[in-house]
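Hi all, long-time lurker, first post. I run a small reading group and we've been trying to get comfortable going from sequence to structure in the token notation. Rather than ask abstract questions, I figured I'd post a concrete chain and ask someone more experienced to write out its structure so we can walk through it together at our next meeting. Sequence below, copied exactly:
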Amino acid sequence: MDTTMINELKKVTGLEIYQASISPAGEATYFLARRGSEKLAGCVGKGKIAGDKVGSLGGKDVTVGATDATNAAAIRAALPWTAPKCLGLATSVGLGDRLGLATPGHIRAVRGTGLAPILAQQSIREMTRTNRKPQQVMDCATWGVFQEGFRDGFGSDADHVQKLEDLDAVVAAGFTMFTIDPGPHVVNEADRLDGADLRQRYQAMDLTGLEITADALKARYAGKEFKLTGGSVVAFDEMAFLRAAIKYGAAIAHIVRAYRKLKSIARQPFELEVSVDETESVTTPGEHYFFAAELKRLGVTWVSMAPRLVGRFEKGVDYIGDLSVFRSSFAQHVAVMRTLGPYKISIHSGSDKFSVYPIVAELTGGLVHLKTAGTSWLEAVRAVGRIDPALFREIYDFARERYETDKASYHVSADIAKVPPAGSLSDARLPEMLDDFHARQALHVTFGSVLTADDGQRFRKRFYAALQRDEEVHYAALVKHIGRHVAPFARKQ
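-- Answer (accepted) --
Happy to help. Here is the structure in token form:
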């Protein structure tokens, strides 16, 4: 559609048109438009958009309708590139969007980098905290992809699924990747057991889910060494085997159950990610080997795995730990991955870990998935600080009050006493607080409380209104910040 026709379309509809969205398909041309802060879907010709006919262009009817679930499904059917797909072993980045507004900024940050983005990514936990449904997460990604005319392909991740019954809703919503988190089945105290305690716990284990006897499982590993790609080995003495089996045996069985359920209910090809990162206990390279080898024996196929790596991967801040120790340990995990895979190493709580990105990029050679989420929420808060300083101040002080309660389910170490009240800060300093370790974590973990305070009446409507009023400020913040994340992993085009 040339410029003249675009101007005519503006005249016919009375709307601002997102030019990148204009897409011919069959007997129709589809477009996304805006009236104030409201976005609308439209088509010229015999399209699938449900809405009102507002005029004609070139002898064809022009229809405009809501950006709702019905029209999102219609857009995905008419323009298949607005639906997610499996990404395979492509270097990828997960870009969680807790608001449903960030996808255009995410796309601008990754476009041209060679990275495959996952644009519909949210955990059941996050959906619960923000009062969102899986279909909403999917539809918001579709509209963002449509707005930007992004035809390179993207993935979708039902993140950190713990309960098998939650798989039904995310499958129905069209997700293509499922991150299974067996954390509740991991026995963290196995690290502290030894000798007789380990033997007793092992004999008491129910190995039905692993489809093997205790003696047969032990014979596969105890006293054995396994050569890894690159020349190193992992070795299991009796204690190392018992610890691995006790720590991860039930978790492996849970992954198997989830995978088999997905195979039975999936409506399209899907990918599996395995995640044990949100546990107290660090995954040793040997335990990684045991976990992956047992999944293979049991017929599970997965695309990426997130072990619990050494050091502290706290929310919203850089890696805390010895980088030389991280490098040495991570190299062993990569060797396990190359031996039993290939699959991608997934870096969870990966936001803002700038000091480890060069190491991860170098050692994986692109077989990596970087997962981010909360950092995009924080950039939205930063944008609000520029658009509506008074609202930012209210949210900031509310986060200070809520932090001690909301931090319970997160790995964070901020000291709220080091977060100054908003009244002591000038407007110019407000966005800068997003660069402060303590304020950053306080604002990170309280996102759910902010969005749902007083049933969403206290902040949510004003927060959305601010970002919708000046969406380019929001997108610019995301491009700058997410761009720092993806730069070390960028692939040559």
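A couple of things your group might point at:
Residues 238-265 form the longest helix (28 residues).
The mean pLDDT is 97.
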